[in-house]
Amino acid sequence: MRFFFFVKIAKIWLGDACGRERRIEIGGPESVEIVCAVVPRPYLKARSHSGRRHPSSQTPLAPNPTQSPPHPLRSAAMAACCSSLATAVSSSSAKPLAGIPPASPHSLSLPRSPAAAARPLRLSASSSRSARASSFVARAGGVDDAPLVGNKAPDFDAEAVFDQEFINVKLSDYIGKKYVILFFYPLDFTFVCPTEITAFSDRYDEFEKLNTEILGVSIDSVFSHLAWVQTDRKSGGLGDLKYPLISDVTKSISKSFGVLIPDQGIALRGLFIIDKEGVIQHSTINNLAIGRSVDETMRTLQALQYVQDNPDEVCPAGWKPGDKSMKPDPKGSKEYFAAI
Which reaction does it catalyse (predicted)? Predict the structure, then answer.
């Protein structure tokens, strides 16, 4: 909401002769701001009936060179006066008024005196958090977003670091050959991330026996990846890894898999298991502070491969190789429940 006050303030200086008319603007749809400026009488008469200034009347307000500077105490009094006006306006109920333009670029801001400075009132921290949450919900729940599980994985061709060299990785190159575990992490040289990355590397041989490749992705450059790999683990680095780290500096990969946080420009901890046909069969997304389990990823991969090899069976909760599976029909399921 924007208000216009035209008041005569006697014997208070603000860069012009005392007793002149002042214009005080309070408002803005997202914050309350006070702008005080000296407004000559001809300027006021030039306003149109709609409340808008005539373009020819918008001349800069230059200070009077023959006039002595404002006294600090008078400036402080003026600032305190305007500050009290601002407190009467609630920014949460502010609405733009029709026919009222934005503040003129020629308006003069209040002088900041030591005693009382008129500062713009800003949105509270809770309001900012609510705004961020709303934008995230809109992104995650958009009507155009198709569920990734059961669909073809978005293909990509990107630079990566492997064996301390720069290589290119194309996801579609694995179709018909291997399963892929594709996981995203927020940033290099952080805290939770190296624990996940090194844990997958330490178990790489087990995944390799299951004909599975591991690919890590972040929005960092290949140069950052290389520097991190060349840093030893005791210093927070990764050391040598057994799988590639992909660079997603354009953020296109993170966005296509739905894990990008738009207002931060980094990815959530998303993990996707992609089968040999290029179809996403499993996905998990953790918030930034929560690391993932390599054991659970391994168990889920084994369950996926089991049901693909045995299409007439399904895996119950917590299934591991060697456990009893279930027939997905009324009779077969009763046999399972009777046996456990």
Answer: a hydroperoxide + [thioredoxin]-dithiol = an alcohol + [thioredoxin]-disulfide + H2O
Whether the full predicted model's pTM is greater than 0.70, yes or no, is: no
Check whether residue 121 and residue 166 sit in a common domain: no
Rounded-to-integer distance, Cα 157 and Cα 154, Å: 10
8, part of any domain: yes
Q: Say yes or no to pLDDT of 326 above 80.
A: yes
Residue 211 has pLDDT above 60, yes or no: yes
193 and 274 part of one domain:
yes
Cβ(308)–Cβ(317) below 8 Å: no
Helices (H) and strands (E) in the chain, counts: 9, 12
Higher pLDDT among residues 102 and 227, named by residue: 227
- Give the pLDDT score at 99: 43
Average pLDDT over residues 239-249: 98
Q: Residues 36, 81, 82, 193: which is the catalytic one?
A: 193
Q: Counting Cβ atoms within 10 Å, is residue 200 exposed (0-12), middle (13-18) or buried (19+)? A: buried
The residue range of the domain holding 230 is 157-309
Catalytic residue list contains 18: no
**Closest of 155, 165, 194 to residue 280, by C-alpha:** 155
Q: What is the mean pLDDT of residues 162-191?
A: 98
**Residue that has been written with the tokens 């214009």 in this structure:** 23
Sheet with 280-286, strands from edge to edge, namely 165-170, 157-162, 245-247, 212-218, 179-184, 269-274, 280-286
CB-CB contact of 1 with 86 (8 Å): no
Rounded percentage of the chain residues whose pLDDT exceeds 70: 57
Average predicted confidence (pLDDT) for the chain: 73
pLDDT digits (tens, 9 = 90+) for 53-83: 433 444 444 445 455 555 544 454 455 444 4
Question: What b-and-e string marks burial along 225-244, b requiring 16 or more CB atoms within 10 Å of the CB?
Answer: bbbbbebeeeeebbeebebb
Q: What single-letter amino acid sits at 212? A: T
Tokens of 203: 């178990």
Which residues pair with residue 247 across a beta bridge?
A: 218
Q: Is 50 inside a domain boundary?
A: yes
